[in-house]
């Protein structure tokens, strides 16, 4: 994969899971460089469509909201709403904590927690985390994010209510890997159901969908046009635009 926006090497250690951002057990962290690259590709496509920000970003398989939080920290000035959903209620507690870091108050509260740990144990890792928190605070100084929230939903369930996701400009998600059990729902075609469910929430003239998955999943749907496709190690990523009725 050729990086168009994150082409210059740099450190992403401030975003390490468990450092300032909270770690959700059983979930994997998403590569920060790839997250930023995909977000900026989506911004560019929307701008070409004439859709100006701030944008609404939605991840329907958010897990601990690591992906959403990283994008919010790096590109908050271009985002107005960040929302996530997941079928697993336990990870949503972590998701809420991570999304709170997109607000000044939430990040300051997290810094106080880390400071308390450093004063109690004096570990270099806590000192480094405090420094990271200070740098992240600078990142959100110009943020346009007014809402960052998450809710429980099975994106493969046709009865699921997606009212909170209507008006979304960017859907970005790292699809569950492996067999059907990984999705947690009962759909025989979870990827197809994912596309079906998100389509009504999108305006074809003002939205884009970025999907990341393992290479074993077929990323296509009749109601979406694929604009870009990339291979990244064992992963693949594709960017789509929804088609009108």
UniProtKB/TrEMBL annotation:
<dbReference type="InterPro" id="IPR029063">
    <property type="entry name" value="SAM-dependent_MTases_sf"/>
</dbReference>
<protein>
    <recommendedName>
        <fullName>rRNA methyltransferase</fullName>
    </recommendedName>
</protein>
<dbReference type="Pfam" id="PF11599">
    <property type="entry name" value="AviRa"/>
</dbReference>
<dbReference type="InterPro" id="IPR024268">
    <property type="entry name" value="AviRa"/>
</dbReference>
